[in-house]
Description:
The protein is α+β, with helices and mostly antiparallel strands. The protein has 2 domains: 95 residues, Aminopeptidase (3-Layer(aba) Sandwich); 137 residues, Gcn5-related N-acetyltransferase (GNAT) (Aminopeptidase), CATH 3.40.630. 27% of the residues lie in helices and 30% in strands. It has 8 helices and 14 strands. The strands form 2 sheets. The chain has an 8-stranded mixed beta sheet, sandwiched between helices. Strands 1-2-3-4-14-6 form a 6-stranded mixed beta sheet, with helices on both faces. The model has no long low-confidence stretch (mean pLDDT 96).
Amino acid sequence: MQEHIALFKKNFPFCVREESVVRELITQNQIIEKRDRSGVLMGAAVVEENNILMLCVDREYRNCGIGSTLLEQAEMYVRKNGYDTITAGAGKHYLMPGIPSDRPVVAESLQPDAVYEGLDPYGVQFFRKHGYTHSWDCNCFDMRMDLQDFSAVPFATEGVTYRMAEPKDLEGAAACTDDAEEGFTKYYRNPELYTGSGKKRVLVAESDGIIVGTLIVSLEAEGAGLGSVGCTAVRQAYQGRRIASNMVILGTGMLRDAGMRQAFLGYTYTGLDKLYGFAGYRICVYYFMASKKL
């Protein structure tokens, strides 16, 4: 299995995922591979249920039909297991949200980007050629910033204060996300976020004793020197007051002050490029959210 992990890392060096997650997802799911006559691994696909977690052909073996063969076999596997739709990227789990690209998939106005060197549109073209379409009505992307360049200053938000959450704040934070973004609540119900001793912590915005905003700040959760902020939520009645922008700016400042070299935002989408752009984040890779009816 180490060969398949090495193949992934070599061909997707920009992918930010914990080592343990990569290992688990590759080793515990269906692997379809292609080797040369001497046994050298040329390419592989990893499939979980009806989702392709990875489809990769080493650069020196491309344009020989290997990718098409792997994709055909992955589709056969998915169809055999009773599914009528196949996706590539994000399913039950993911290594990457979708097929990486150097340009937006949907034509729309976005913040200026800073795309990783070496990215290209060929993966998207390959999947489109095989009948896949983009399943979102907007763009999906990752964002990143070198923290040595961070200089954003919080906006004035009268009547709102910001602090790190304590164990007593769990229910208040969960109530905030229930109101703002219910899908985030499951993350905020993790008691370890409130101890102040782990890699992940919660920053809250408070007004009149009520938690009106939340943000998860992660220190080296995805690698040495790499920090992250995310799951930004603001109660509906308090939206439009720059509270979310302030939490992002303050959380990013915490990453810098803790010695992180870079800050990262994964699996982001249109609109959030402006929110995080205020703090200095830029889009570094776009994703084609591939889907196809079988």
